[in-house]
Amino acid sequence: MTVRVLVASNNAKKLKELQQVLDDCGIDGVELVALGDVEPYPEPKEDGLTFEANALIKARAGVAATGLPCVADDSGLAIAALNGMPGVLSARWSGHAGQHGAEDTDTANNNLLLAQMADIAQRDAAFVSCCALVTPQGEEFTAEGRWEGSLLEAPKGEHGFGYDPIFQPADTPGRSSAQLTPEEKNARSHRGTALRALAPHIAALRS
Ligand code: ITT
Q1: 3-class SS of residue 143
Q2: How far is the CA of 161 from the centre of ligand 1 (A)?
Q3: Where are the stretches annotated Disordered (predicted)?
Q4: Which of 29, 82, 166, 206 is most deeply packed, by most CB within 10 A?
């Protein structure tokens, strides 16, 4: 029997990464369903103060609307010199979603962050992701991943999305996360780590 699992993200590039990581886990008998494949439902308000709280808000909303088990990711960039900000505010650092188009929002977020950090030499940064799985029976599982690195002085690279052009991973010296192939990024990223930790719980949905 195949189990359908909703992957609840409105960010097409994030969704692709989530799907690729899960596909690479090779879980037989699980069919991933995107938001575009189900009856539309209102986006829940992401008003949690942690990545975990927001990931659970998104996954619970997916289950409530569709009756399917649901996986969601909440993620962002944590800058040490900014006490972990933008953090859970990463998506709306330069203003509310809808104010710009998706690509413009990314550019506006990156430009604002670079301007705020212009005179600051301490540039330690980490991408953080919390992935949540919620089942129709009310079981909840979460897992977190961190990708350590630093904030660049200027954007470079064309791959990925969001803050990738201004993030220098510690484990890919000389290449920003926007200069990695999808496979290279998924193998190291916050999202890859979090979702692979959740994979056994997703696989267990079949039994
Ligand atoms: P969904 O909530 O619909 O999944 P979203 O893009 O709004 O989509 P978040 O609320 O989790 O997702 O916000 C994540 C923010 O952090 C957003 O600004 C992203 O661009 C950024 N971000 C997260 N992971 C990233 C990554 O792997 N590379 C670059 N930026 C990332």
Answers
A1: strand
A2: 8
A3: 167-193
A4: 166
pLDDT digits (tens, 9 = 90+) for 6-48: 999 999 999 999 999 999 999 999 999 999 999 999 999 999 9
Q: What is the reported pLDDT for 1?
A: 76
Is residue 74 flagged as an active site residue?
A: yes
**Ligand 1 atom 8: residue of nearest CA:** 11
Describe the strand order of the beta sheet including 124-134 as a list of residue ranges.
30-34, 3-7, 70-79, 124-134, 140-151, 167-169
The tens digit of pLDDT for each residue in 156-204 reads 999 999 999 999 999 999 999 999 999 999 999 999 999 999 999 999 9
Q: Would you say 161 is a known binding-site residue?
A: yes
Ligand 1 centroid to residue 88 C-alpha, Å: 9
Which of 74, 104, 119, 124 is the catalytic position? 74
Q: Is the pLDDT of residue 98 over 70?
A: no
- The answer to whether the CB of 86 is under 6 A from ligand 1 is no
Which atom of ligand 1 is nearest to 43's Cα? 3
Query: How many angstroms separate the Cα of 187 from the Cα of each of 15, 18, 127, 190, 195?
Result: 16, 12, 14, 9, 11
Of 147, 128, 143, 150, whose CA–CA distance to 198 is shortest? 143
